[in-house]
Every structure is written in C-alpha cells, then in structure tokens.
Amino acid sequence: MRLVPLLLLFACNGSTEPDETGDPAPDTCHGDPGDADRVRKLVHATPFDDSGAQSGGYQVCSVDPADPGLVCDPADRFEMGRAFMTEIVFSPDGVLGAVAQDDGTVGLFSLQGDTVQVVHADFGAGLGSFYATQVVWDEDGEALWVVDGNWRENGGGLYKLSVDCDGTLTDLGLVVAAKQPMGLTIDGDRAFVAARDLGDSADGDNAHLIALDGSSLASGPAFPDDEASVAHAVWTDDRAFALVSDNSMFSGLPNRVSVVATGEASVGEGVVVDVPDPVWMTPSTFDDGVLISSGFENDLVWLPRNADSWGTPNVIASSPLAGAHARLTRGVGSGLVVVAENTGVHFLRFDGAGGLDDLGTDSTGTTTGSVVGAIGMQP
C-alpha cells in the first residue's frame, strides 16, 4: 500500500456534471457513493501488538461483496490512536474513514484505491472540547458528528465537525448537551439518540428524536427505570423503531434490549426483551429484525421482527468475543454484515426472509497482534 502526500489525494470543484450513470454528481466532495458492486475496503484496528502491548495499528483488507471473504496484505497497515470497541465509519464515497479512539480523540484517514493517508491521527487532542465515544457522518459527507458519552458536567453531548475536501476537520462546538448519549443515527435533517437526558427532556425520557440544530422533536422512556447502562442504540431503516441495549453489570436486573416505536416526531414507551450482554446491534436491511452481539455469551443473537411486532431473541451463531459490526446496504452485497471477533471477522447476510445466512469466519491470525478491535467497511 502506497503512502503519498495528502495534497495529491483530493480534487474537489463542487461539480454537478452527470457521472457515468447519468445521475447528477452531488455538489459535495465526498457525497457520491460510486459503484454499488465494487470491491470494498474493510479496515479493522489491531489494539494489541504481538507482545500483548496496546497498539494504535490498523489493517486494511479487501472484501468482494459478491463472494465475501477477507483479502489482506500484512503490509497494508497504518497507525493512528488505539480503537478497541467501536465502528470505523466512512464518508458516503468511502474515501474518508473516521473512528472514535480510546483516548477520546478522532482518527481520520483517507483511502483512494490502494493509497492510504492519515489525515488526523488524534483530532481533538488539546482542544478541551469533546471526548469522543462515537462518530457519525452526515449524509453528504460534509460534517462529522461526535458523541461525547460523558455526563453533562464533563462535556457530554453532541458535537459537530466540518470536513473540508482534503479531510481537514474543524471543531464547530457543542450542538446539544446530554447525559451519557449513545447510538446516534442521522436521517436527513433529524436524528435518533439514546441519552439519560438531552436538552430540556423530561425526567425518565432516555430515547430522543432531535433536529440537527439540536432542538427536540420528541422523547420517550426506553426503560421503565434508571438502572440501564446503555451499550448501543440503533434505528431501523424504515425509522419505525429504535432499539436501545442495556448491559449493566450492577443493577440486579437482567441485561435487556428496549424496542421503542418512533414516528415522524414521536417516541413511544419501550418494550423490553432480555438479551445477555447486548454490546452491539445492526438492523436488517429488510426491516425484519436486528442482529445483536452478546459479548459475554460469545453469541450472535437474532431478534426477529414481523411488521409492527417483535419475536423472541434466539442464538444463530457462536462468535468468540463478538464486538462491533458494519454492513452494506446497496448493490450485490446489500445485507452483508461483518462482525469483529477475537481473532477474526465473521460474515453474515440478511436473507430477506426473516433471518440471516451465516457465511463463516475468516481468521486474522493466532497472536495477540491479530485481535480485531474497531471495524468498518466502505459503503
């Protein structure tokens, strides 16, 4: 993999000339998703080296969505900050990748073909602004949202970063304060996020719909108590439901997932189902269920959905130290999901018939340097 000076990587003139498909190109630098069937780059963090020491390494691999599997060259690596348990998220065109790192900074890199360049190894260091626990792209690739999962008093809330064509980030500051926010999903000019409180929300409301200026659209109670330790939250593709997971070890209550009905500007009361240690969730591209990583159980769990009703969670595969997921939503690979495992990447595909096909695990090695941390795949 070649490393080249960053200034050579980007060309952006805001053109709206038609692309090769005949569709107008978006008037943004990183908004064009490109060929839906192309081979994708998959990037995963390697949070330990072979000696067992902590590492800020990242491995770049390729995945053919028509015939999924890892193709990796050990030389295709780069260094930023350590990222153990989160998703690496890509701009809509797949060129820029960003991740919330363990020290609260944002790492950002570029991928063009086989060329990789670190743009920001630790954005936010020294700013005294946010402590990143999640990052999310807006839909045109011009802004990156940062979730700071702390209490309000320690900076908790949602922050916005502008993104220049060359990947340069600028901190635009706090958009809305919150207590322990988690699981931001953006849909046009609104978003869903779980938080113990957000803005001026009422006591007990911990599921929130907001406008992207930070104003509230609706809030509701995902859980009937204040005992949840939220691990993750997602919004189904049809925006009919949000799911919030609780993996508290100290509440005395079973671990659980709350299913919350959402409308254009409404949030219902959560319906709770028991799922052990639900550390990560991914909604089906067919709106027929949600895939859940059960960390301590080393399982992948399927929570089925039939229109407006939800079934009983069931184990569909063993997955050692199952962690974060990434998925494809278009082209021949639509419905493909990758799951970070202890020393491998597990491939599954939503089958469109109310379940998933288990495509197996590709090993990343046998040493501590092969442990898979944060993971992401070009859209």
Which key phrases capture this entry?
about 375 residues; disordered N terminus; mainly beta; five-stranded antiparallel β-sheet
Describe the protein's architecture and organization:
The chain is an all-beta fold and 379 residues long. It has strands at 40-48, 54-63, 71-79, 89-90, 96-100, 106-112, 115-123, 134-137, 143-148, 157-163, 169-179, 182-187, 190-194, 197-198, 207-211, 216-220, 230-235, 241-246, 256-261, 271-274, 278-283, 289-294, 299-306, 309-310, 314-318, 325-327, 336-340, 344-350, 356-363, 375-377. Helix content is 0%, strand content 47%. The chain has a five-stranded antiparallel sheet, with no helix packed on it.
The count of DSSP E runs of length 2 or more, i.e. the number of strands, is 30
- Class inferred from helices and paired strands: mainly beta
What is the beta-strand fraction?
over 45%
Mean pLDDT across residues? 93
| Global shape | globular
- Distance separating the two termini: 21 Å
Chain oligomer state: single chain
Low-confidence runs? 2-26
Total helical elements: 0
Radius of gyration using CA atoms only:
20 Å
- Estimated helix fraction: under 10%
Write down the secondary-structure element order: EEEEEEEEEEEEEEEEEEEEEEEEEEEEEE
Strand order of the largest sheet: 8-9-10-11-14
Largest sheet: 5 strands, antiparallel
Write the layout of secondary structure elements.
Layout: E1 40-48, E2 54-63, E3 71-79, E4 89-90, E5 96-100, E6 106-112, E7 115-123, E8 134-137, E9 143-148, E10 157-163, E11 169-179, E12 182-187, E13 190-194, E14 197-198, E15 207-211, E16 216-220, E17 230-235, E18 241-246, E19 256-261, E20 271-274, E21 278-283, E22 289-294, E23 299-306, E24 309-310, E25 314-318, E26 325-327, E27 336-340, E28 344-350, E29 356-363, E30 375-377
Antiparallel strand pairs: 1-2, 1-30, 2-3, 4-5, 5-6, 6-7, 8-9, 9-10, 10-11, 11-14, 12-13, 13-15, 15-16, 17-18, 18-19, 19-20, 21-22, 22-23, 23-24, 23-25, 26-27, 27-28, 28-29
